[in-house]
Specification:
- By secondary structure, the protein is α+β, with helices and mostly antiparallel strands.
- The chain has two domains: about 80 residues, Ubiquitin-like (UB roll) (Roll), CATH 3.10.20.30; about 80 residues, DNA polymerase, domain 1 (Orthogonal Bundle), CATH 1.10.150.
- It is built from five helices and five strands; from the N terminus they run E-E-H-E-E-E-H-H-H-H.
- Strand 1 and strand 2 form a beta hairpin.
- Helix 2 packs across helix 5.
- The longest helix is centred in the middle third of the chain and has 14 residues.
C-alpha cells in the first residue's frame, strides 16, 4: 500500500512499486486529465508537479515518490479552470486537438512560478513538451498573456485579443485563489 498526496488529498493505493505514477493517477485515483503520450518522458503529455517542479509522471515509479511529496495534476490547478494560465489558454484558443494541453499548461505554470516575466527565449527553452498539432506560437502567446507581459503575439487569430477574458489575465504569481488546491 502506497500513500500519496495528490491535489491536497491523501490517497491510499495498492500497486506494484514499479508502477508508473501516471497510471496510478489515471487508473487508481481516477484523475484522467494527465495523459499518456510516449511512455519515455519525451513528449510531456503526462506532466504533473511534484513539490512544485514539473515532472513527467510516465517515467517515475510510484516507489520513487516519498510520502511527504505533494503531487499536483491539471485537476489540482483550480476547481473551475480559473488559474491564470488556464484562462489564457482558453482566451487564445491554444488547443487544436487538445491532447497535450494539460501537460503544456503544467509546464507553463512551473515556468511562470520560476520566472514570472519570461522572454520568448525563456519560454522556448522551458516549454519542451511536444504538440503534434504545432500550436507552439499560441502556447508562447498564452504564457505571455498569463504573465501579463503584453506580448500577445503568436496567435494570428487572437493577436493581443484579451476581450474574451474581460481584460488581461492576472499574473501567475497572483495571490488570488479559486480553490484550496490552486497552485501559483
Amino acid at each position: 500500500m502506497v500513500q500519496l498526496n495528490i491535489n491536497g488529498r491523501t490517497q491510499q493505493v495498492d500497486v506494484e512499486p514499479d508502477t508508473p505514477l501516471l497510471w496510478v493517477i489515471r487508473e487508481q485515483v481516477g484523475l484522467t486529465g494527465t495523459k499518456y503520450g510516449c511512455g519515455v518522458a519525451q513528449c510531456g503529455a503526462c506532466s504533473v508537479h511534484i513539490n512544485g517542479e514539473v515532472q513527467r509522471s510516465c517515467s517515475i515509479p510510484v516507489s520513487a515518490v516519498k510520502p511527504g511529496d505533494r503531487i499536483v495534476t491539471i485537476e489540482g490547478l483550480s476547481r473551475d479552470s480559473s488559474h491564470p494560465v488556464q484562462k489564457a489558454w482558453a482566451a487564445l484558443d491554444v488547443p487544436q486537438c487538445g491532447y497535450c494541453q494539460s501537460g503544456q499548461i503544467m509546464a507553463a505554470v512551473a515556468l511562470l512560478r520560476k520566472n514570472p516575466k519570461p522572454t520568448d527565449v525563456d519560454i522556448d527553452e522551458a516549454m519542451t513538451n511536444i504538440c503534434r498539432c504545432g500550436t507552439y506560437q499560441r502556447v508562447r502567446a498564452a504564457v505571455h498573456m498569463a504573465a501579463g507581459t503584453g506580448k500577445g503575439g503568436g496567435s494570428i487569430i487572437h493577436m493581443g485579443d484579451t476581450a474574451k477574458m474581460g481584460g488581461s489575465v492576472a499574473p501567475a504569481d497572483s495571490k488570488a485563489k479559486s480553490g484550496p488546491e490552486e497552485v501559483h
